[in-house]
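Sample entry (365 residues):
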Amino acid sequence: MKNCIRPKRIQNVFQMKSKKENQIGKAQSGFSMIELLVGVLISMLVVLAVAGTAQFLEVQKRITVGKNSTLETLAITTNTLEEDIRMAGFGLSSCPVTHVVSSNDTEDLTRAVTITAGANNKSSDTLQLVYGDSQFGISKSFLTAMTTTTFNVNYAGQLTKGSLALISDGISCDVYFVNAAPAQNSAGNSYTVTYGSDKDAYGNSWTDATIRKAGATVLGFNGIKNLTYSLNGTSLQVVDAVAGTPATLVSDNIVMVRFYYGLVDGSFVSADKNNNAGTDYSPAGLTATPANLKNIKSIRMFIVARSPVLNKTDSNNNCTTTTTAPVSWTGGPTIDLSSTNNWGCYRYSTSDLIVPLKNVLLSAT
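Predicted structure, serialized as tokens:
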């Protein structure tokens, strides 16, 4: 009987193994075609979403970086210009007429500020600023006597070897190069200064030797700056005519600079226009009489900076980042950027700042 039962047990074991094998086979089976297609579709949607997000973030990054860059450019530009405009006429604006020149510079050194207008609305202006350069401030003394090689003053002040002396009699003035340390007389109440026959640190020869009468004002400088700001392409540059050095870059990505004379009546005029009294405010007119300096109280500067990166064109290959050119103040001039290639592919920021000419105002009263 034992032999009869054993085959049934073996059969049951085989049946159990067969069921386990079927279960394992089902567990190891792959995805169906529909399941694969659904998975691929979901993956594609995820990839597209990530790509769209990346593209959006890139656009936002360009906008943010471009905006920050233009604001930084404007800050550097306006700060540099403002500092020099505030210095305009320092120590020199009290001299109304002059024919002073150096070997590097043939301009009128005592014209505190000169705006040269651009050719049209698409052109930038040029700004020239002149001032005495002194780290200690201007020291004033009075002339007691003068010869072709020396002059005597009651106080030496900043007159040292290698410095410049501006001597003015109220009608005209000249700049003289001091080539020896002032010598104090035995009584201690005056100094003899030797001038001429030497060159300054920039190689300038200050050759004016007009003899002034006693009582003339004597001012001492470490040097004189004659700065001209102009736009070369999209680069704002400055040249110091007295130093005779090459143009120095102030800031890049500047597309327009405009300057205006601020008059005592509160109006602003460009270099090629007249005020209500008919006085010409062109560069030639500014040197005519001291009254011109009295009428100018400030300089208004309008600057347009653009983003450094060229944005992408639209589907029609058109530049539509900016569709309207930047505008100046209410009632101010129209800004035309149409002469700039692909101007609509950039973002712009503008700065409108009024800077008082404190040295001109104080000395012209």
